[in-house]
Amino acid sequence: MIGRIVIDAVQPSTPRGYPAKAVVGEAVHVSADIFKDGHDVLAARVRWRPCGNGKWLTVPMHELGNDRWEAIVEPTTLGRHEIVVEAWTDRYHTWRHKATTKVGAGQDIAVELEEGARLLEEVGERAAAAHIRDATRTETDRLEEALTPAMAERFEGPDLAHDLTAHDSVPLWVDRERALVGAWYELFPRSYGGFAGTIRRLPAVAEMGFDILYLPPVHPIGQSFRKGPNNALDGGPEDPGSPWAIGSHKGGHTAIHPDLGTREEFEQLVERCHDLGMEVALDYALQCSPDHPWVKRHPEWFHHRPDGSIAYAENPPKRYQDIYPINFWPANEKDRVALWDACKEILDHWIARGVRVFRVDNPHTKPMAFWEWLIPAVQEHHPEVLFLAEAFTRPKVMAKLAEVGFTQSYTYFTWRTARWELEEYLGELAHSPTADYMRPNFWPNTPDILSGPLRDGPPAAFKQRAVLAATMAPSWGLYSGYELCENQPMSEANEEYHESEKFQLKHRDWDDPRSIAPFIGQLNAIRHRHPALQRLRNIAFHRTTNDAVIAYSKHTDDRSDIVLVVANLDPWQTHEATVGLDLGLLGLPWDQPYEAFDELSGQTFLWHGPEPYVRLDPHQAAHVLRLHPGSRMTHR
Fold first, then answer.
1. CA distances from 176 to 75, 388, 430 (A)
2. pLDDT bucket at 632, cuts 50 / 70 / 90
3. Which residues have CB under 8 Å from 415's CB, separation 6+?
4. How far is it, in rounded angstroms, from Cα 138 to Cα 165?
5. Residue 605 falls inside a structural domain
């Protein structure tokens, strides 16, 4: 039932009551619609605590307008939290408003004075109550005794309220910072000779500023129906096959492909990443090759055709004869429980070996109920573990995966190239209700996807897309070879790479002078320097006079860090435009110059007014500008 006071639309929240998401130290804006009948003045607060901890923390709420209230909480611990919004009639300020309004209207306030005296007595202010009842003084003088700031403080909180109303608690899951902010780099260890060769590659990856090294499946690969180069149906005896065809007589999801190295070498890779300020993410792909041990031991865990054979994976026109999907709902409940437990044991195995991040392959092809169970089951004992959903699927399915527990998700950024598409999509990600629980991770490319201007594109296209991904979203990633501007698609109709590394080894010349690795390192260094770029909801777009030029800003709440990005979306031509800045939003002066320092070029511009002019050639790709009120050019 509705209480005496209505508390609606509490945020952050999810559609079905799963936990919303935050990270340690993040300023979480808790808001609600709060109102009641009549004209009483209301007060509200947020009470919150980590679940299992009896100590409540309290933050007062303030009204934003139109009955919307807000407070900011900053969680300091990992795990599940609960938030409660409470509201009550503020009897003191209700009385104060009524009394002062009548005084302003020249009306008698004898009744209001007595009401005030009784309120004062309730908080033990007998002397003040006597003063307000002293008929020898003027009404104005008697009233002033009760209107001081010190007196108002005596009535703070709901202790005197007769109608304290609490909304049902809402859950909040708090992750570590890496859940929101990070740069991912994907590589295939087998192209480097295994883990030992990958370790030798790590300093170069770290020099580019990446935080997470993501490895596709490192498990034994099946021999049956092994794919050849470019997804050929018949692989030769020397073809390595697809890493996603997991399992052979040498083991399954907890085993390591012998060509990659030993378990000790894998652990050395994890340790070396930590030494360089990175961590390892492993692929969690719940599927099996026909040679996986599960196929013989647990045929009931797979889909069977009418002829009794096990069904392989298909995504027409693609056929994956080397992969058997898992049946997560076998007919026997006991079999289902055993299967789900076995899937969790895979994660437990790798967590015990130092892995705390998992990229999950095609989670939308597994039941939502499975993820709803699995992710909290893991995070109950390991709240630091993160899950990235490779969910290139329908929007509602993608959002539901995030709601039931996935830490991050791949997105449609890969296919958003026009200015209006980017502005519309970022508006959805940053400002729609899904922003409470869905964290995007922007990837310009993946081993499966070579899209948009990258297809046969020049280096300028690779720079442009990297700038957009790295500065629009707090988390971004790329698949190795991007820095060498690998741009040859399989065909006009196929988004995959020609000579795809998914099916063969790839050897690259990392010393190629055309490499944009230094540029990528610049971008990640800029991200590390600017707190404004480490958040999503602060993005704001600014108009430009040229649709080939996009402009957007991010700033911290206190405006101590203001970043403006102006990018050329055309990798083939030079473009110029006038940018229409919202100086009020940015906290910049209208009547004074302000400084714009380009973090990419090192140039400093002195701008004045809301309409600066920009000119960007394709090679330059973008300005990433640190804005500062006034001019410090003479001090540089």
1. 10, 14, 20
2. low
3. 451, 452
4. 38
5. yes
Q: Which of 201, 199, 253, 246 is nearest to 221 (CA)?
A: 246
Percent of the residues in the chain that have a pLDDT greater than 90, as a whole number: 93
User: Within this chain, do residues 167 and 68 fall inside the same structural domain, yes or no?
Assistant: yes
Same-domain status, 50 and 69: yes
Tens digit of each residue's pLDDT (9 = 90 or more) over 211-249: 999 999 999 999 999 999 988 888 888 899 999 999 999
Q: Are residues 630 and 551 in the same domain?
A: yes
Q: Which domain holds residue 623?
A: 537-635
Q: Is the pLDDT of residue 636 over 60?
A: no
- Cα separation of 115 and 92, whole Å? 10
Residue of 123, 120, 147 whose CA lies nearest to 133 = 120
Let me know whether 541 and 618 are in one domain.
yes
Q: Per residue, what are the HEC states of 369-392?
A: HHHHHHHHHHHCCCCCCEEEEECC
Query: The domain that contains 26 carries what CATH number?
Result: 2.60.40.10
Tell me whether residue 348 is one of the annotated catalytic residues: no
Answer yes or no: 557 catalytic: no
Answer positive or negative: Cα dihedral of 66, 585, 422, 437.
Answer: negative
What is the distance in angstroms between the CA of the first residue and the CA of the last residue of the chain?
Answer: 63
Dihedrals phi, psi of 345, to nearest 5 degrees: -60, -30
Cβ-based neighbour number of residue 141 at 10 Å: 12
Residue 626 and residue 541 share a domain: yes
Is residue 45 domain-shared with residue 134, that is, in the same domain? no
Q: Which residues fall within 8 angstroms of residue 337, CB to CB, at 6 or more apart?
A: none
Q: Residue 477 forms beta bridges with which residues?
A: 184
Chain segment 179-197, per-residue pLDDT in tens: 999 999 999 999 999 999 9
Q: Which amino acid is at 497?
A: Y
308 domain-assigned: no
Choice among 283, 291, 361, 483 that is catalytic: 361
Is the pLDDT at 296 greater than 60, yes or no? yes
Q: Same domain for 30 and 163?
A: yes
Number of domains in the chain: 3
Which of 390, 403, 483, 496 is catalytic? The answer is: 390
Q: Say yes or no: 71 and 170 in one domain.
A: yes
Contacts of 132 (CB under 8 A, 6+ apart): 113, 116, 117, 120, 142, 143, 145, 146
Q: Phi and psi at residue 544, in whole multiples of 5°?
A: -135, 160
